[in-house]
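RETRY 2/3 - previous attempt timed out on the joint model. Re-submitting the same 671-residue input unchanged.
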Amino acid sequence: MTVPEVDQSAAAEAAPAVGGVLEGVQVSCWFGARKVLEGVDIKMDAGVVTALIGPSGCGKSTFLRTLNRMHELVPIATLAGSVLLDGHDIYGAGLRLTEVRRRIGMVFQKPNPFPAMTIADNVAAGLRLTGRKVRDRDELIETSLRRAGLWNEVRNRLGAPAGGLSGGQQQRLCIARSLAVSPDVLLMDEPCSALDPTSTRRIEETILELKDQVTIVIVTHNMQQAQRVSQHCAFFLAAEDEPGRVVEQGPTEQIFSDPHDPRTADYVNGRFG
Amino acid sequence: MTMPETKVLPNPRAPEGRQPASAPAAGPRGKVPPRRRPRAWRWTDLAEIAGALGASAALTWMIFGRLLPFRVMPIAYVLLAYVLFLPIYWFVIRDGQGATAAKDRLVTVLIATGALFAFAPIVFVVGYVVKRGAEVLRPNFFTETMQIVGPLSKATEGGALHSIIGTLEQLALATAIAVPLGLLTAVYLSEIQGPLARPVRLVADAMTALPSIVAGLFIFSIVIKPHIWLQSGIVGSLALAILMLPTVTIAAEQVLHVVPGGLREAALALGAPYWRSVLMVVLPTARAGLSTAVILGMARVVGETAPVLMTTGGTTVMNVNPFSGHQDNLPLFVFTQIRSSQENQVDRAWAGALVLLAVVLLLFVLARIVGSASPGRRRLRVPRRRASRTTSDGGNPS
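RETRY 2/3 succeeded.
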């Protein structure tokens, strides 16, 4: 790989001061001929948790997947506009696809640890998968697990298969796995929708601990969760047979207490969707 | 049927039966109601079957033994008894439990009969081979060759060591050729899904039905006929590899298909190039299934006679070099021995068939073990891997 050899463990230990700034500029998305998202402008600042809310099928997950180029895994998917990471277009020629995904990590709706690997191997999987080296692998595993709030639960069974963990633990393992490659941004696609309330609370605590180190963007259907963890909030909505748009965005407090748009007010107060 | 039971039970428990019903776990007096198995066979069920069987047997005896003026084969007794059993059983059940239950029982009997018919040939074939083979199988069968055995030697003389060695070597070579190709093809079909995927899958599907003699003829005409290579073990392996390739490919592709797409996405989201995500996530996840695919391919060709008949040459002497000179193998051993007009040689063929059967059985058992016991195996392997990893870490290929 062209990635220079970096001392991962030192970098992780020092915990990068702030994450990267991610900015979507006039992003539109298509699946084949169907336009699912139109003209989305969102700036996701470092040190801020941005929540994307809205009813199902409004394009918020699609938007999230354009942010680390997972959108194009669907063969018929296309897009317009640009996504800037610290000012550089991630779809431009200057950044490699693998480097973009390494710097912008993703946690999925369903916990998906690699079943053929142990817990420790799962955390370090990103290194093998990107062909990089670290000086102290065990140190990196411990640091990543600590940052994901899982270390104390698995420290004595790092050699056990990852499939033996509970759902909530698996999801935090996935967070640790993403953190191990020291991303600047972490995207979370409804990370708690498959989890019980206790596990959800643990994940939310993890998010709040991480937000000063990594820029976090989270898609959630849970209004209370958006209020608890995010500082910035964007409300997506798609009218029938129309692409999704951002109806309103701003500080989370204002979106929930004093929204400008009546549709936002209806949604956050549970009157539809 | 259950009515008398429920009537009897409450009576002795009537005084205190109502109160503890809400707290059965306490059971201070040990009055736990007997465990009931709703699906278990009841004595009346067995009695109904036995009665119907007895009635049909008696009726059969009466028809064949008393009414018909001539004798019939014993198999006719069984057939008639079975045919009579069905309506008798149906009437018995309908009388007791109604037409629906009767229909249900009748269909159950028919299905069970079908299962028995499917199972019986295997038992007969295996049983016959074991019986005939065990008569002449001696330890020297595994240690001697046929070099100094004449046509009139006793069946217990001589052995198939040269054939066993040949089978193992040819199987190993065929596996070494077919498995890498098959796995790569499966990865192409399932992971890369290139423009050629559809035609390749079609051809692989069609090739599973390729007559094995065609594979032998093909290799014979392109390798042996132009004198590129003379008849030897490796040429036989080429023919076997052709037969193995589609089996391994199709089985491996189906295994790769069931690897969850979320794992691929997770690997890619970490910044992995696609080939690394396939190599380090998809293939290891499917490891157990892929091993099964390989062993299925081996079991497919280990018993093939036609392709090796034309390509390995066949011999009675030991030849451990598969790359030069004629070589024998087990199916060929059976084939040459059983064609003989000498009774003793035919007997020896059955010993070869028994050994071949044992090899196939071993392969299938291996496939089941490898395919099912993966988590336990992993747990055993983990400490060693971790130990070696910590010493040699940093040496990951980049």
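Chain B touches chain A through 32 residues (CB under 8 Å). Closing ticket.
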